[in-house]
Structure formats: C-alpha cells, structure tokens
C-alpha cells in the first residue's frame, strides 16, 4: 500500500536565501520607492477587473506602521463561483488555451517572467510595503526565485511526455498526460510573490486553469502580477485571482463542485478543513504544505561558526515566518554553553528596523494578530520556566516589530517546545546527550524539515533513517514525506 507522498519545498527558500544573500555585496540593488503607487485592488476574473459582487472591501495594512495602505475588493463565494465559471470556460475543448501548443505555454511563462523582471524594483518595493520583509530580501531573494521558478517550469512545458508500452497481443498501449482542469490555489502571506509563482508555474506549464485566493494580509503584489499575466498574452479565464478571507473565499474554493484540484499552503489547522471540504464535495485532489515545528540538531563535531550562523538563519530569516523555520535547536551537551553564548550574541547583533533601510536584517511581523500571538508565546515560555537569554519584547513603539528572542533550557513539555510559535523570531535551545538522543525529543507529527549540523556523513545518514520526517533532495527529484504537515507531491518537474 502506498503511503501519501509529500513534499516541503520551503526548505529551498532557506537554501536559496542563504546563497543569494551571501552574494549580495556583489549585486547592485536599486534604490526603492518607499511609497509605491497602488495600481490594482480589485478582483481579477477573465482578464478583467471587477468589484466584489457584495461591494465589500477590506483594508491591507503596512506592518511597519499599522497604517492602512488601501482597501481591496473582498471576494467571497459568489465571486469564486464567477471565477470558476470563467476558468471552466477557458478549459473547454477547442478553447484558445486548450488549442495552444505546449511550447507556446512555455513561451507565455517566459514572457511573464520577463515582465516581472522588467518591474522587479517596483514589485520588490510593493512586497516590502505590504509584507514588511526587508527590501533587499524582496529584491535579491524573493524576486530572484520567482524568476527562476517561472523559467524552470516554462522549460518543462513541452518536455513532459507519456509512454508507449509494448504489450502482448493485438493491442497498442500508450499513456498521455492530460491537465487536471480547474485548479483552486490558496496561498499564504509569508512569501506572497514566490508562493504565487510556485503555484502558477507547474499548473500553467501543464495546461491547467487557475482560481487563486490570495492572502488578505498581502494581496497587492499578486494583483499586480495578474495584470502582467494579461499583458503576457494568457487567454481570458486561464488565471483568475480573488482576494478575500479564508472562511469565505478560501472555503468556497475548497468545497466547489467544479474545482478539480486544490493546492494549499498555510496552517495545519486550515489544512484539515480543506481536506474535509474536498472530501465532502467532489473528492477533488488535494495538495497541502502546512506548518511544522522543525529542529536544528547541532552535533559536537560541527564547525561552531557555521553552526551558529546556520541555526540563526534557519530561524530568523523572513522574521521567523517560514513554515519550516528551525525554531528548536538541539545541541550536544559538551558544546551547549558555547553555542548558546554565541547564538545570543548573534541575535543581539541582528538589525531590526525600517525594512526599506539596506542595513535592516529583520522587519516587522505580518500583522497585529501574529505580533500578539508571538508575545503571548514568549510570556508562556517565561512562565513555564524557560530561561530568557535575550529579547522578549516589542522592538519599536510603532508597527509590529519584535526583538530577536532566544530561550535556553527549554524542556519538551513546555508550550513553546510543542507548538509552532506563530512564525516568529524566537529560537529555543535544548541540550541533548548522545547523538541519537535527539530522536527521543522530536515529535514526528510536527517536523516539516529537520536541519542536522555535523561534519560526519554517518550522523547525517543516521538522522535520515531515524527521523520519520521529510527526505530532501535537489533539482528535479521528488521530495517525499509522511508527516501530516505535507500531503501530495508538489514542486517536482510538472505537478500543480
């Protein structure tokens, strides 16, 4: 019996982020416009802009200040119905999209990438305004990976073939890959542009049509890209983008009888709801990439400089707002004191502030809700006996900035050791004894991506065989796993 296959491509963000940032001094980053003009704030259906049928709007907020940037059309079930109808029409046999050669689909994706690259400076500034991540990160990391993702899948568009199989008798046997159809896609707020590319790239390369629900916290860059999709030449109805809330617009996609597949990246709690909705409706296919509680595991033979920086980056990158952030760090007892001391020094040196300042390493959390949740977890850690070594409070009088925080002497039973800390900048240090004792501390149901640190190949091999988490690889290999945090194969050559 086959186990559910799973993949967590978020680990790629950390790897690419480290690589791109290490090359940053050699790359010129154009000066940002800190108040980019907002061009699009409506619903995008059939290559046209629409107000919500209900005429409702919602505010999108600058997390650096708490000020409203603009109001955006609030899509709900009626708008999703209209978007699905447009997508289904675009997918009908004989439509311009269905008649398009696979190589032409690749050319459209490459054209979209070219347009995004043309507007890269604007998009990076808009991402920083709406999301709060440092502009340098938006420009060098997120936009770079968006371009590579779209161009990668553009190259696959005409290279995904079936097979001709020789069999006995008077039979001719072959397989032909067909698109799934209408793909509902629900993306989060932590990497808005990149998540959009990760979902659109494989779906469009393989000839599907899309109804995408973008996060209510960060709708602006996705809506701007919608206009670039039209400019690139995609036929009407192929991509439809509905900003709105999860319980209304998101739920409507997950339960829609005419959506053939739903792909979701977000919280484990909502992932359960989507799985149930898909089963109760038309048994649509489901791909989930959810939250987790991922560990860093530092062995005594690890290079200390490397280990400290890797553990720091694994947690604090993107304000800690990564689904596979290494929030728990297990350190062997004989190096624990030195590792913690140096980790605290590194956290204290982290520059928190205006995300448009090129010196800033850490911007604000995404919104007030996340801000308060993280501070609540910090309070819980202190009350339950964890040792607060640095940080622990707000980092500014305005906006949603939190001090880089490090806890030591964290025990397995503490809330901060068991629960995902709302994607925030809080590192937990836990010491361990023998190399294999780390396995006893880990919760297999919550581990999206372990990050072992050792110079020993034997240690790495032991971790991959002992931990029932995810297995990682590069290039076009599938990443398979068996944890509840990921369901379905995604981000391989051509899967939407």
Automatic annotation (TrEMBL):
The keyword Oxidoreductase applies. The active site is at 289. Residues 49-426 form the Aldehyde dehydrogenase domain. GO terms for molecular function: aldehyde dehydrogenase (NAD+) activity. SUPFAM superfamilies: ALDH-like. Its EC number is 1.2.1.3. Pfam families: Aldedh. Transmembrane segments: none annotated. InterPro entries: Ald_DH/histidinol_DH, Ald_DH_C, Ald_DH_CS_CYS, Ald_DH_CS_GLU, Ald_DH_N, Aldehyde_DH_dom. Keywords: NAD, Oxidoreductase. PANTHER family: ALDEHYDE DEHYDROGENASE-RELATED (PTHR11699). Belongs to the aldehyde dehydrogenase family. This is aldehyde dehydrogenase (NAD(+)).
